[in-house]
Amino acid sequence: MAAVAPTLARRIARPGMLPLCSRPQAWGRAARQSPGLPRAPSLLLTQRRAFSNNKILVELDEGSGIATMKLKSPPVNSLSLDFLTEFCISLEKLENNRGCRGVIFTSAIPKIFSSGLDITEMCRKSTEHYAEFWRAVQEMWLRVYGSNMVTVAAINGSSPAGGCLLALSCDYRIMAENPKFSIGLNEAQLGIVAPFWFKDTFVNVVGHRVAERSLQLGCLHSAPEALRIGLVDELVPEEKLQDKAAAVIAQWLALPDHARQLTKSMMRKLVLDRLVAHREEDIQNFISFITKESIQKSLHMYMEMLKKKKG
Ligand SMILES: CC/C=C\C/C=C\CCCC/C=C/C(=O)SCCNC(=O)CCNC(=O)[C@H](O)C(C)(C)COP(=O)(O)OP(=O)(O)OC[C@H]1O[C@@H](n2cnc3c(N)ncnc32)[C@H](O)[C@@H]1OP(=O)(O)O
């Protein structure tokens, strides 16, 4: 982890300090640059700027204003505390860059978009650690779901639980049309429960009935099924995924920013405000839940099952 990251991890975690997400985001923030005419990003002769940390590669095409955040944390892009901290730092840099108007989230790891929350962060750790970890999970969601930028998930691999949440938090989801790739909020299969803001985000995408059934059964949906239930917006061949994502963002950016941003804020505000108002309570709920012996046993058995499947 880069030297700066532990400090930022503490900054996200320390209850006395302003969390990163206390800055106004999709609600109450000035509009970004005027969009001008829609332009195909690939036709532009523009400069690309790249920066990276240990776990995320970021490339910004300054002509189109579209950035790509590539998740690169082998073996499976699990969302550890370090990963989440670096993710939020990278996203904040883009949010603060007025030239950046859209972000594509994708993976640099073949066949895996993200394996979700890092289960080891939830096993036999201290209360302080659980609080820090859960605050970082909240921060990721608040930042992505509340972003003023156009966000597209280019899902080039499997994406269970927290990985699915990241995709669900975007404005649009495009998945590689490989039936072996799956996506869903499978928490129930681990013997744990998706918190209310995971559930709300899911309901807002697929509707109540589909979400209820899928959550109760802890379903992981194959790519074609994910399209059928509206969990993803379209499937494309894997080699076309990045171009398609850039084309979709360009289309969304053709609209006046203020109108799109205010509409996004109107659609998402209730759900965002609910977590912002109950953030500390949500952390305490997480701690009470995760420290139960029965839950620790379930997680342990699940990790053992993953290992057995391998060997
Ligand atoms: C009332 C309620 C109140 C409050 C709420 C309270 C609490 C709970 C909320 C918690 C919400 C949780 C959200 C989550 O995201 S939980 C994580 C769910 N993720 C999964 O189920 C995915 C598990 N992994 C897989 O299915 C496969 O690994 C995957 C991603 C399909 C890749 O398969 P493959 O390529 O074959 O790779 P391996 O399985 O061999 O894995 C390689 C290596 O990685 C380890 N690993 C995989 N996933 C995770 C993970 N999520 N966290 C940590 N480690 C992971 C795996 O064990 C292997 O390790 P090894 O050491 O054996 O190499």
Automatic annotation (TrEMBL):
InterPro entries: ClpP/crotonase-like_dom_sf, Enoyl-CoA_hyd/isom_CS, Enoyl-CoA_hydra/iso. One of its GO terms (molecular function) is isomerase activity. Pfam families: ECH_1. Gene3D superfamilies: 2-enoyl-CoA Hydratase, Chain A, domain 1, 6.10.250.170. The keyword Repeat does not apply. Keywords: Isomerase. The keyword Isomerase applies. Belongs to the enoyl-CoA hydratase/isomerase family. PANTHER family: ENOYL-COA DELTA ISOMERASE 1, MITOCHONDRIAL, ENOYL-COA HYDRATASE-RELATED. This is Enoyl-CoA delta isomerase 1, mitochondrial. The gene is ECI1.
